[in-house]
């Protein structure tokens, strides 16, 4: 019963990981029901909770792109800044595909140590929004 309830909650970052640097505009990766997704932070509240907007349509949850949620710092698994889009766009131009750029960008982030490891190796599925030309 406890495991079932825990699976419905947001995943918590490793206690040994550094506190993330989060401010309005930062994208944060969180996980619920085994599904990792990005949110854009709109506001950091005085109690250090984060008011954010979901940046994906989720498969395992009712949340859709644009839904507003409240998070805690402990739920932030990974961060990226809007300026990082330049890296993605240059990869996309070089590789000719948003899908290939997404995988390459992820691999670069993993190699540099800023990306969280996949939850379950071999079971990771990457979804791109329909607006991305693949």
Task: Tell me what you see in this structure.
This protein has 134 residues and is of the alpha+beta class. The protein folds into two domains: 1-13 and 20-80, SH3 type barrels (Roll); 83-120, no CATH class. The chain is 24% helix and 21% strand. The chain has a five-stranded antiparallel β-sheet, with no helix packed on it. The longest helix is centred in the C-terminal third of the chain and has 15 residues, at 98-112. It is globular and about 45 Å long. 11% of the residues are buried.
What can be said about the biggest beta sheet?
Answer: 5 strands, antiparallel
Mean pLDDT: 83
The fold-level CATH name of the largest domain is SH3 type barrels
Look at the helices and sheets and give the structural class.
alpha+beta
CATH A-level architecture of the largest domain: Roll
Record keyword descriptors for this entry.
five-stranded antiparallel sheet; 134 residues; SH3 type barrels; alpha+beta; disordered N terminus; 2 domains; 24% helix; globular
């Amino acid at each position: 019963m406890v495991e079932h309830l825990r699976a419905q909650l947001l995943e918590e970052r490793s206690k040994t990981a550094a506190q993330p640097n989060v401010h309005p505009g930062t994208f944060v990766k969180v996980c619920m029901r085994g599904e990792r997704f990005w949110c854009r932070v709109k506001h950091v509240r005085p109690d250090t909770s984060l008011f954010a907007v979901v940046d994906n349509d989720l498969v395992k949850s009712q949340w859709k792109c644009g839904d507003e949620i409240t998070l805690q710092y402990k739920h932030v698994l990974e961060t990226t800044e809007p300026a990082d889009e330049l890296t993605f766009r240059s990869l996309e131009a070089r590789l000719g595909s948003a899908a290939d750029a997404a995988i390459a960008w992820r691999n670069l982030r993993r190699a540099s140590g800023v990306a969280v490891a996949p939850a379950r190796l071999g079971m990771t599925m990457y979804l791109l929004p329909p607006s991305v030309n693949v």
